[in-house]
Amino acid sequence: MSGRERVLGRVRRALADVPRDERPYEEVIARDYLREHGQRTPAKTADLLARNLADYRALVHRCAPGEVAATIAGLLAARGARTVLVPAGLDPAWLAESGAERVEDRAESTPGELDLVDSVVTGCAVAIAETGTLVLDGSAGQGRRRVTLVPDHHICVVRVPDQVVASVPLALPRLDPARPLTWISGPSATSDIELSRVEGVHGPRTLEVVLAGAE
Asked: Where would I find the LUD domain in this sequence (predicted)?
């Protein structure tokens, strides 16, 4: 029996005597707290997202929806990327102008193989302005979690204003808690006790965000 099976078995035993008619957690906890700090127009919300992403050292680029392909091609070229990982369901138009070799996201790909890929391009499920956070849920165009953690360069496209919300409480109703959610606030970084910052330890060293549709 694996460790996972033992843990899940303990959870099942702990829940065995919980009455089926017990009120669910969502009904017991009041949700009347403040859901957004102030009121902003969609444009100002996108501006806040851009500022907070940059504060986390992400590189932010704005473009019109029709300029996504050219923007991504320019970012890959500037990076010198020869290969780019393509999650299933990614809009093919996004890479139409890139000359980089496309690598398909395969379930059998090993971490070592993914580490050889220069860049990965994904979409996202939602972007949170107040925290500068991108949330990926593994659906079409976003790939599995490890494809956004192993390659050293991640380009994420956010559709503005459709995928941008002001706060975490406004983001949660858009997300399915049963899906594998990955919350990203800037490139991977960690600090030791002396606050020496090291990037790329447990994720991409460089995160570039394309805000498509932002004015």
From this structure: 111-211
